[in-house]
Amino acid sequence: MFGEVLTATVTPFDAEGAIDYERYRELCAYLVDNGSDGVVVSGTTGEAPTLSDEERLELLRVALDAIGDRATVIAGTGTYSTAHSIHLTEQAHEAGAHGFLVVTPYYNKPPPRGIVEHFKAVAAASDRPVMVYNIPSRVVINIEAETMAELAEIPNVTAVKQANADLEQARKIIQLGLDLYAGDDNIVYPFLEVGGRGGVCVHTHVVGPQVREMVRRFREGDVEGARQIDDELEPAYELLGVVTGPIQIKAALRMVGQDVGGLRLPLVEANDQEQALIRNCLDRLGVLEQASV
Fold it and tell me: With CB atoms 3.0 to 4.6 Å apart as the test, which of 33, 102, 207, 243 could cross-link to 78 if both were Cys?
């Protein structure tokens, strides 16, 4: 329904820190031309916590206008406020989003029954598909199997972005009839092996064609070929661990000729040591050579 390779997009800024919407239009087209079946707008990688509601909505409109007729456009509408999440979902629905990525409420640590009620309320704001985003490392809560089973009963909850390497949990999500997407780039291949649909990725900003080829080979039965590409992508996984995202991927994009500007505080630019590590990863991936051609 959403596709297999989705990119959680960065948000380009100009020299004054305002969103560069024309650059975002170009970025979305570039990603779809280079392996992505769709994009996620205003996720964490897009620095959503620093965006106004108006900026989120305009980014969504730009993405839909740029690629909405040939790729999936998913709006990140989850916050730790159910009322605000409903508002963002209603706005995104009206704008024409194909679906919604809704993160587990963060910081306020609701009990499982609160998580279920949150997703019920947000999903009710639209009849379009909702992808649950389970990322315990960021929100401090892991959606356990029993809670996930209740979420699966919500009619338009169709998928899970699972940023958790527990393969047993991953299998249980699939058994519930939900599409499983890797929420960490280094677990796309392991999730494919257990029946996953694909990934919502960050490294696909710079290695989209390689990830697309890995998924294609796996689907066509060339498991060894897919595994080999996964091994070759190790520097991309290392890159994402150099420093908090999207600091590292914005630095990487600039190095390969995709100028997406700086970051909004509290995020800061990669320092010299971090940039050297990022450049080394890109060099080992061979993408710096491609960018210079």
Answer: 102
